[in-house]
Amino acid sequence: MTALFDAETETTAELMRRLGAAARSAAAALALAPRPQKDAALVAAAAAIRDDRALILAANAEDMAEARRNGVAGSFLDRLALDDKRIEAIAQGLEAVAGLPDPIGDVLADWTRPNGLRIQRVRVPLGVVGVIFESRPNVTADAAALCLKAGNACILRCGSESFRSSTAIAAAVGHGLKKAGLPRSAVQLVPTRDRAAVGELLGLTEFVDVVIPRGGKSLTARVAADSRIPVLWHLDGINHTYVHEAADPEMARRVVYNAKMRRTGVCGATETLLIDRSVAGSMLRPILDDLIEAGCEIRGDTVVQAIDPRVLAASDDDWDTEYLDAILSVKTVDGLDAAIEHVNLHGSHHTDSIVTADAAATEAFLARVDSAIVLVNASTQFADGGEFGMGAEIGIATGRLHARGPVGTEQLTSTKYVVRGTGQTRP
Q: Which of 383, 13, 385 is CA-nearest to residue 197?
């Protein structure tokens, strides 16, 4: 749902304060909304997404045409693009969140003190969540759904490239809110492309409780520099797949291909392949054949180049790069310790995977790799809240405070202590 904005009668600063005040009011209502009402809004929003399919696709076609005119990269276009399948996935995501348990009111701990006081730690909403994201219009629905389910109002600031698509999706969500009798201001999409709106949002300390950036380094850097509001970090995905010497060759081939090529522009895509030097000669060539035949550019160290002459030389910068494209850096390592050292040094602490049949290597990798998500014998592309059973996600939090990993409904809550007495006084 989009608020109206007339730049001739209202400044961007005034607009953002108006959105903030409306969101704070809506958050108070949402905090008390029963689960059936929130779920009804999500189901109605899903129906509206399907009903408005043609409108959403038309809006997306305009966004795509403008992006092509601006010469954006193919991987960016993939993140921006919508089709019937992706729109249906958005609708199903809303319904999946509706089917999740309501976290609000969950009692996380319950104990009684010797003096008879009963103390409970209970989940409560965060309040108002600001979400700043870039090119993926589905984030509009995902963020709205998760915030709503967790009893939070949200202010969504999409990238200018997805403005029309996100506006159309937000309108459908607004229909769901109205049908369920919830405040339409519970979900507000910033109705201007003015870049100043981001700065104003980051200063709304009176109204916004937490900000979640979802995008590239330039976005997160700006939020880091400018935000006066606590930030739930979603940094870049410099993810690794490590093929250990005890890996099954066919499993490694399947997992690496999917981890890189299923969708190259998502944050869970593998950007660096590590492989033990002892098995590189026997295992690596079939893996590279699959990737290169699919159009993936390979940048490798000297050992990798010797194995396959099609491989380009990797630079030092390649080990620290999130390509979000059909490009993969490949490095040989001298065993498990070297692989873990490389991941912790060059990764972004997002998602990393090991392929191995060795139980000791598995446990060492899981214990020592310092990332939000660590996998064994599985593609890094499973780094997704939907795949974790969360219905959807706002992002993968890579920091250590409050939440880490997929940010779903539980991660969008805080706690309070409820203490029940029978007249006790403190001596």
A: 13
Other Cβ atoms closer than 10 A to 422: 8
Chain segment 232-285, per-residue pLDDT in tens: 887 789 999 999 999 999 999 999 999 999 999 888 999 999 999 999 999 999
**Same domain flag for 217 and 293:** no
Structurally, how many domains does the chain consist of? 2
- CA 242/CA 376 separation, integer angstroms: 10
Do 94 and 116 share a structural domain? Answer: yes
Kindly report the pTM of this predicted structure: 0.87
Sign of CA dihedral 241, 247, 251, 253: positive
Shared domain check, 360 and 399: no
> Could you tell me the residue range of the domain that residue 334 belongs to?
239-382
Backbone angles phi, psi at 163, to 5 degrees: -60, -45
CATH number at residue 50: 3.40.605.10
Name the nearest CA neighbour of 407 among 67, 28, 88, 147: 147
Q: CB of 252 within 8 A of CB of 243?
A: yes
- Residues 110 and 179 placed together within one structural domain of the fold: yes
Q: Answer yes or no: do 191 and 47 share one domain.
A: yes
Q: What is the CATH number of the domain that holds 325?
A: 3.40.309.10
> How many angstroms separate the CA atoms of 135 and 236, rounded?
14
* pLDDT at 263 (0 to 100): 92
- Would the pLDDT of 1 be above 60? no
Q: For 348-371, write each residue's pLDDT tens digit.
A: 999 999 999 999 999 999 999 999
Same domain as 142, residue 48? yes
Q: Please tell me the distance from the alpha carbon of residue 67 to that of residue 11, in angstroms, as a whole number.
A: 27
Tens-place pLDDT, residues 129-158? 999 998 889 999 999 999 999 999 999 999
